[in-house]
Design brief:
The chain is mostly loops. It has one helix spanning about 10-20, and strands at about 30, 35-40, 50, 55. It is built from one helix and four strands, in the order H-E-E-E-E. The strands form two sheets. Strands 1-2 form a two-stranded antiparallel ribbon. A hairpin with a 2-residue loop joins strand 3 and strand 4.
């Protein structure tokens, strides 16, 4: 059985592997709520909806409120 005469260079290997990321996802669809790409029959990772219904409630990060002296609070002292 013949063996390869030379090793493929990293560039040639990388070029070959890069073509895999260019392939379209045939089994993807759009979320009915946020329009992001989702695999069929799965809950959307972005908004938590499936079939037009909220399945998983996502946690929302609240911004911290800073108390400034100019913000209407009286200064003690």
């Amino acid at each position: 059985m013949p063996n390869p005469a030379r090793k493929h260079t990293p560039r040639r290997t990388g070029n070959r592997r890069s073509k895999n990321s260019e392939l379209d996802l045939k089994g993807s669809s759009r979320c009915s709520n946020c329009k992001s790409f989702v695999r069929p029959h799965t809950v959307c990772k972005e908004c938590g909806f499936y079939g037009g219904k909220l399945i998983i409630a996502k946690k929302v990060k609240k911004k911290k409120e800073h108390n400034h002296p100019e913000g209407g609070e009286e200064q003690k002292g």
